[in-house]
Amino acid sequence: MILLTGANGFVGRQVVRFLALQETPLKLVLRKGSQRPTDLRETDEVIEAPDLFQAEKAWWAEALTGIDTVIDLAWYAEPGHYLTSPRNLDCLNGTIEMAKACIETAVRRVVGIGTCAEYDLSQGMLRPDSTLDPQTLYAACKASTSTSTSAPTTARPSRPTPWPTAST
Predict the structure, then answer these.
(1) pTM for this predicted structure
(2) Contact indicator for 28, 94 with CB cutoff of 8 Å
(3) The pLDDT of residue 146
(4) What is the pLDDT of residues 140-156, one digit of tens each?
(5) Tens digit of each residue's pLDDT (9 = 90 or more) over 36-82
(6) Hey, what domains does the chain have and what are their CATH numbers?
(7) Quick one: three-class SS letters along the chain?
(8) Chain centre to alpha carbon of residue 137
């Protein structure tokens, strides 16, 4: 089963639509009071969280029961505010709490999404190995998420790292 965060976001809506067409069983974590995505099936599960980025590792561990893959697409992205908002630090901390729970509950695979703003944009065409050069709090927190969660863990040395390093 796949657990998905950010299902109502710009990218998340497309991912939900695609996975629903593939008949992939889904568990979505939605902000309390959010609208259920229209592409969900009756068999898909929804968990509501008052604030996804304030959820502690224990909450995540329970939410991750039976989960094989996490697709983490949630982040604060209010137009005109997100680049410099301190809320980015909450997103970073919340994502790290989720990562700890993923390791603890043996989630096999975690997919995250980055931003081109993490990179040195003066280099022209970006590649996954392009130099990082975040210029805003948003970009720095996104880059920190990637670098801090993609390193191999010593908690379970026989397992590969659950976090990919590629950003979009």
Answers:
(1) 0.85
(2) no
(3) 85
(4) 999 998 888 776 554 44
(5) 888 888 888 999 998 989 999 999 999 999 999 999 999 999 999 99
(6) 2-150 (3.40.50.720)
(7) CEEEECCCCHHHHHHHHHHHHCCCCEEEEEECCCCCCCCCCCCCEEEEECCHHHCCHHHHHHHCCCCCEEEECCCCCCCCCCCCCCHHHHHHHHHHHHHHHHHHCCCCEEEECCCHHHECHHHCCCCCCCCECCCCHHHHHHHHHHHHHHCCCCCCCCCCCCCCCCCC
(8) 17
